[in-house]
């Protein structure tokens, strides 16, 4: 992961630590141009990823509102994908000092210094508990020194988030232990689902025990034995391991490590107050003064003055933090109220928009239905009109066919009648022509020479014979021709004078 850019902003420079739930990296904030520390949380369930991120962001934001003197400052949080793995990350201020575990390993502090350091951790816990935040994982590795020598408590919100995530994901049926076994309270070891601020006070007692004796109060060879010790083991008072510890301080540590939360001190503030009383000024021993004891007395007085100043500063800081917490709480309430009002307004607007959308969609659906209905009606009317016109056309066609048949019959009848009349006319003309011819022959016999009469007779006979085979269409013209010729013949014959009656009367030879 070294050199990768987290969420497009944080360049991972060096891994500072690694645990079962994630890693801690030194990083560079490209946007703000500052060194930061990034905690990566990788051990996450696959179900409910969005809800998991929302819980993570909620816990980190709550922790980021804590006063910053004894708590590490959280700058940012989010989710990203690194090496193909989904991670949640928290960006916090980069501390370059040692952890409390490293400091005790290098040199065990005096009980006075251990008490002073414990009071700083108690002040951080008090500020968190006042806002309903329980750390759940107080241990030497989660306490670091800043550049001014003050202690800073790390990982507020992380343990709470991890515990909720494990329970929500359903990994166990009775709860699991979240925290470090060596500094875990008995109720955490039992996997109780709900723990309160007193579990942090137990872990604070373990932390003070570690500073006073160099080891945690209960240590076993394996995790199962460690859990058994946390639930049933007996804790040896610290003054037996370090006789320099005042008995009052040893008894107070035992009170902090009470197995029943009800038997522990009521709050982190009461722990800080009692530690301030325990760490009162220690006078010089009753012996002759010497330069060495004078120097020791001066150092003791200086330490006392410094402790008094630190206590006064802590009290002022506590008062300031309380005032700031009240102002912050009021501001948060106002913001919550404004956000709620904005959400209600947005909800009303969404409801109005949804109602308008539904109304518009209903109108569009009704318009579409009306259009379909009208179209169906028009189609039905068109089909009816078309059927009616088709029926009318078929009826008219039948009438036309019937009329055509009638006309055909009438035409056939007319043709037959015309042929009959034509034949009758030809017959009549023929008879008339024969009559005229006969009359003409009779007259011709009297007037014309025999050879002319014979020619005329032959002509008329040919006309009559030809008319018998002439089609009906040509009979009319033939008749007209015959009539015209007969008329001409009649006119020609009329030009001859009527011969005297009786042939005997004609002149002789």
UniProtKB/TrEMBL annotation:
ATP binds at residue 39. GO terms for molecular function: ATP binding; protein serine/threonine kinase activity. It is an enzyme of class 2 (transferase). Keywords: ATP-binding, Coiled coil, Kinase, Nucleotide-binding, Serine/threonine-protein kinase, Transferase. Residues 288-299 have a biased composition (Low complexity). It comes from the Bacteria. Its EC number is 2.7.11.1. Residues 276-304 are annotated as: Disordered. Residues 383-424 form a coiled coil. Residues 10-276 form the Protein kinase domain. PANTHER family: MITOGEN-ACTIVATED PROTEIN KINASE KINASE KINASE 20-RELATED (PTHR43289), SERINE_THREONINE-PROTEIN KINASE NEKL-3 (PTHR43289:SF6). This is non-specific serine/threonine protein kinase. It comes from Streptomyces yokosukanensis.
């Amino acid at each position: 992961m070294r050199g990768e850019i987290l969420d497009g902003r944080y360049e991972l420079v060096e891994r500072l630590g690694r645990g079962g739930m994630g890693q801690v990296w030194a990083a560079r904030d490209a946007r703000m141009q500052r060194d930061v520390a990034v905690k990566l949380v990788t051990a996450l369930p696959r179900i409910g990823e969005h809800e998991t991120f929302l819980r993570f962001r909620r816990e980190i934001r709550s922790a980021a509102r804590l006063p910053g003197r004894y708590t590490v400052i959280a700058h940012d949080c989010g989710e990203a994908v690194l090496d193909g793995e989904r991670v949640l990350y928290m960006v916090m201020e980069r501390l370059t000092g040692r952890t409390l575990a490293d400091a005790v390993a290098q040199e065990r502090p005096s009980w006075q210094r251990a008490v002073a350091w414990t009071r700083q951790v108690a002040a951080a816990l008090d500020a968190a508990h006042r806002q309903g935040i329980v750390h759940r994982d107080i241990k030497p590795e989660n306490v670091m020194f800043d550049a001014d020598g003050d202690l800073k408590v790390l990982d507020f919100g992380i343990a709470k988030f991890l515990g909720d995530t494990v329970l929500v994901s359903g990994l166990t049926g009775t709860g699991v232990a979240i925290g470090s076994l060596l500094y875990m309270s008995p109720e955490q070891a039992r996997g109780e689902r709900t723990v309160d601020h007193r579990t942090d006070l137990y872990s604070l007692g373990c932390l003070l025990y570690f500073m006073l004796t160099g080891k945690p109060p209960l240590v076993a060879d394996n995790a199962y034995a460690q859990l058994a010790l946390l639930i049933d083991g007996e804790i040896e008072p610290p003054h037996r391991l370090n006789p320099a510890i005042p008995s009052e301080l040893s008894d107070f540590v035992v009170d902090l490590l009470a197995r029943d939360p009800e038997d522990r001190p009521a709050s982190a503030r009461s722990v800080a107050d009692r530690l301030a009383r325990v760490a009162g000024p220690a006078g010089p021993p009753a012996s002759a003064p010497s330069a060495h004891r004078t120097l020791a007395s001066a150092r003791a007085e200086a330490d006392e003055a410094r402790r008094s100043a630190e206590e006064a500063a802590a009290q002022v800081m506590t008062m300031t933090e309380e005032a700031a917490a009240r102002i912050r709480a009021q501001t948060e309430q106002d913001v919550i109220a404004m956000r709620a009002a904005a959400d209600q307004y947005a909800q009303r607007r969404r409801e109005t928009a949804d109602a308008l959308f539904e109304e518009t969609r209903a109108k569009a659906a009704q318009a579409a239905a009306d259009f379909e209905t009208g179209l169906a009606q028009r189609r039905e009317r068109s089909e009816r009109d078309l059927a009616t016109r088709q029926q009318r056309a078929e009826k008219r066609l039948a009438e036309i066919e019937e009329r055509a048949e009638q006309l055909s019959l009438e035409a056939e009848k007319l043709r037959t009648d015309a042929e009959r009349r034509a034949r009758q006319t030809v017959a009549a003309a023929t008879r008339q022509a024969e009559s005229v011819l006969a009359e003409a022959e009779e007259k011709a016999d009297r007037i014309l020479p025999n050879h002319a009469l014979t020619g005329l007779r032959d002509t008329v006979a040919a006309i009559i014979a030809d008319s018998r085979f002439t089609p009906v269409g040509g009979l009319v013209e033939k008749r007209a021709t015959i009539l015209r010729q007969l008329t001409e013949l009649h006119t020609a014959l009329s030009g001859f004078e009527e011969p005297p009656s009786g042939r005997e009367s004609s002149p002789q030879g």
